[in-house]
Amino acid sequence: MTIRILGFLFLLFFLHEDSSAHFLPKRSIDLIAAHSLIVDSRLPREIAPNSYSVDLHPFPEEGHFKGHVQINITWHEPTDKITLHVHEDLKISHSEIKIIQFAPDDEKLKLLISHKPTEIKILRSEVVPKKPFYIIYLEKELKIGAQCSVDISFSGKLYNDTSEGLFRSNYINTITGEKKWFIASQLRPNLARKVFPCFDEPAYKATFKVSVVRSKTMHALANMPLKKSEELPNDSKWVRDYFIESPPMSTFAFGILVSDFVSIHINNTGDENDLETNISIWARPDFLSAVENSSEKIYTSVKALEKFWDFKFPLPKLDCVALPNFQGTRPADNWGLIFFKESELSGKRSWKITHELVYQWLGALATPFWWSDAHINNALARYVTSYVTLKISDGKETFHNWPMTMLYSIYYEFSKRYPHGKVMAIKQDSSSTKTELVFRMLNYTIGEDTFIRGLQRFIFDRQFRTFFSDDVWSCITQQARIDRVLEESITANEIAGSWIAKDRLPVLNVIRSEDGTSAAITQRVYLRERPHDVPDQEKLLWWIPIVLIRQDHLNFSNSIPVMWMRRQREVTISDLPPSNKFIIVNPEEIGPFPVNYDTNNWKLLAEYLQSDEKNKIPVNTRAKLLHDAWNLAYAGDLNFSTALDMTRFLKSEREYLAWDAVFTMIDHIGRHIDGSNVHKKFLMYVRMLLTPLYEELGDEAQEGENEGKTNLRMSSKVFLCQAGYKPCIEEAQMAFNKWIESENPDEGNPVANQYICPVFKWGSIEEWEFGLQRVVNFPLSRKQSERTYLLKTLAGCPVDSWKIEKILNITILEQNGNFTDNDIYLIFSMLTGSSSGYTTLFNYLSKNWNALKKAFENKPQLWNSLITSSTSVFKTQEGLDKVTKLYKERQQDFGTAEFVITKALKNIKEEAKWSNDNLPVIENWLDNYLRLQNNGTRTEESKFL
């Protein structure tokens, strides 16, 4: 009966994907996700481009294009060859390559004579096997300073199955019924080589002159405004559009669009301080009205970003395009030409739009030198986006819960024994998130004005150039020196480096003296996952700002540190209030670290939060105190009784930001104590906590209510539903019944995902059996992700052991052909989410040992997965005894899973120790709490299954 977050996460994802920091856009220029592990073939550094002239002629209906590029190159090292990036799909016309030298490579000759352009003979050219290189060998070596133009003709294919490189797609005009083609480009991070030969690395910035051939019935867009158009000689069908030369930019920022889309122009107010950039929004004709509402968001964001950077939009025009069938995971933010999915540009929120606009400055105007510097680009872009979005929305667009959601996720990740596991993309993303929070910390501690002026200094200094990570921190330090807010001995580089270089976070322990007027503050590594045996943890120290709030002077607007811990293990602070007044260190989560206090200070905080003056402490700090308390208790650093006392103020709390920490606590602690005798009492506590809140909020959203209230209702409903709240179950069953009664249930699922888990968990035998048949009969024509979700919920949601045993029998012992080995892996994984799941799996293994061993005798990975899922999740002494007994009985029979079971026993011992230490404390607190609340217990419990 564990309270599980499965339904909650799916509900948030499907209903509010764009509203949570968990789903912040991920950019390909940044060192994350698919491009985080990019191991590109670097070009030699002998030559570099000054300018490109690119002419492209796409043939949309035929699916190919041809083109020509002229690259102006300068020699920086002596060499007799030219190496360019060329993708294997790009075909070069070798015989048409021409190289003209127009500047001599002898400095004396440059002064004495006027050099006549001369053609350089080409010995040969070749495509390098298995590498994206095209090498042109010259008849002679050119020296430093030589300049040549390289002319190359080429052809390529328009990609039809992916939105990468130069690709084509189509849509059906709903008004005329016609099929309409369009051509677009997406060149991040290194896909320009698919479109034209080039120096396809971010460091090689050059100007671009672009021309595009299109049919007369279409029009073209590029990075810069249109300069002129000419009909092709002897061909009345085609027109060549010439665009103004661009400023220096990297190849990934190149972009074109050829379409029949229509546009609306964002009207300027006529004010002398208005935008100097012409902004247009483009869409297919029958969709234009759907994106009209984005014009104000784009205009407002551009204005706000110009103010933030103190730098006008870098180009004379900006086109934002709603692209049909765009398959990119995120928008393609070519410089001056951004491609959005139609849903992204027509949505209500401004976060995504602002995020793409940030990259017009940070990424296009100032560019990371190489992908190793891109994490700083990602972190700073996300910070600026959140900062600006909160400003322009006047704090209303806040449900993405910045920065709390990010903080929670990195606290959990960096406090593991082995952060990130073997998943490098997770490491890059969490490291980037941490860097974003370091920017936020500096904004608070050196002052917002100084911090922003430092970033403005950086953009001005690196405009049209590339940068390294240290350039950002150095500019912040320089501004802090000018404003005299950092001592000469302190640099932002050193502060940031102490955080970014570690895959860990610190925790502060604040112990006040008996009279309260002084305190010893120590720092150490924050470890939440047991055992705390991380090697070399004593050597890890951070630069930590000590920002302090005291009860007798609650001034949360002052974020200047009273001191910095300069990689010091311990410091002492004085001049604190007496022991009957609390202090708060790191209010508003200024730095990404939790704080622990002595018992008396925690007691003072808990009492104050239950008083009428609670709201004098801002909601972010209330959330922090609650989150820190239960996480420290979970880690074994704080008594659980003290941590649970911190939840008492929730009786009068109605801010979602504070409750968000509670929902996480319910999930984490609920899963840990699931299967113990304490769990039923914990469920009762959860019901008492959430039922009054949910009933006060009501079933339906009220007109004009804020997002926080809407999502507080949604979250409390999900968790109550998982706890067996009857109105929720009945609502889910009514929705599910529509599917049961449909004529062809295998054709589609009319039930919202939020209803499926509660039905499979609390519903009837018939309902679960119906779901099982839908998986068995699932048509190949439907999205397989829907089948996966159904199978997950069928296995992971039920509390009835017979349901779990039945699905195990069908998939393993009966070897039903509708289920694959991957399905069995998935089922094993889902059963680890609740005690009913993994206990049933363990009992099933014990009862059917021989049959299961035979079924998996040629599938060692499945056998290992079975042993892992059925034995390693127990957390109590009772569970340890069960697994130990099985191990002794079958010690010679585990085969390849021998290492699995021995590791499981070691982990369970740690968890059992935690349970022995903490479950009695939790149970005692729950008994006292439930006794005090006893008057309403009967009434409330009647609403639950």
Descriptive notes:
Residues 1-37 have low confidence and may be disordered. The chain has 29 helices and 31 strands. It has 945 residues and is α+β, with helices and mostly antiparallel strands. Helix 20 packs antiparallel against helix 21 (784-796) and helix 27 packs antiparallel against helix 28 (898-932). The strands form 8 sheets. Strands 1, 2, 4, 5, 6, 9, 12, 14 and 15 form a 9-stranded mixed sheet that branches. A 5-stranded mixed sheet has the order 17-18-19-21-20. A 4-stranded antiparallel sheet has the order 10-11-16-13, with no helix packed on it. The chain folds into 4 domains: 33-366, Immunoglobulin-like (Sandwich); 369-500, Neutral Protease Domain 2 (Neutral Protease, domain 2); 506-715, Sandwich (Immunoglobulin-like), CATH 2.60.40.1910; 803-945, no CATH class. Strand 10 and strand 11 (179-186) form a beta hairpin. The chain is globular. It is a lipid-anchor; GPI-anchor. Its cofactor is Zn(2+). Its main location: membrane. The active site is at 356 (proton acceptor).
List the helices and strands and how they pair.
Blueprint: H1 6-15, E1 47-59, E2 64-75, E3 79-85, E4 91-92, E5 98-103, H2 107-112, E6 118-119, E7 122-127, E8 133-142, E9 147-157, E10 165-172, E11 179-186, E12 207-215, E13 219-222, E14 226-231, E15 238-243, E16 256-259, E17 262-265, E18 278-283, H3 294-309, E19 317-323, E20 332-334, E21 337-341, H4 342-346, H5 351-361, E22 366-368, H6 374-392, H7 404-414, H8 424-446, H9 448-462, E23 465-467, H10 469-483, H11 492-500, E24 506-512, E25 519-525, E26 543-546, E27 548-550, E28 563-566, E29 570-573, E30 583-585, E31 595-597, H12 599-609, H13 619-634, H14 640-645, H15 656-673, H16 678-697, H17 707-722, H18 726-740, H19 753-762, H20 765-776, H21 784-796, H22 801-813, H23 821-831, H24 835-847, H25 849-855, H26 860-871, H27 877-889, H28 898-932, H29 937-941
Parallel strand pairs: 1-12, 18-19, 19-21, 22-23, 24-31
Antiparallel strand pairs: 1-2, 2-9, 3-8, 4-9, 5-6, 5-9, 7-8, 10-11, 11-16, 12-15, 13-16, 14-15, 17-18, 20-21, 24-25, 25-29, 26-28, 27-30
Helix pairs in contact: 1-19, 3-5, 3-6, 5-6, 6-8, 7-8, 8-9, 8-11, 9-10, 13-15, 15-17, 16-17, 16-28, 17-18, 18-19, 19-21, 20-21, 21-23, 22-23, 22-24, 23-26, 24-26, 26-28, 27-28
GO molecular function: aminopeptidase activity; metallopeptidase activity; zinc ion binding
Protein name: Aminopeptidase
Subcellular location: Cell membrane
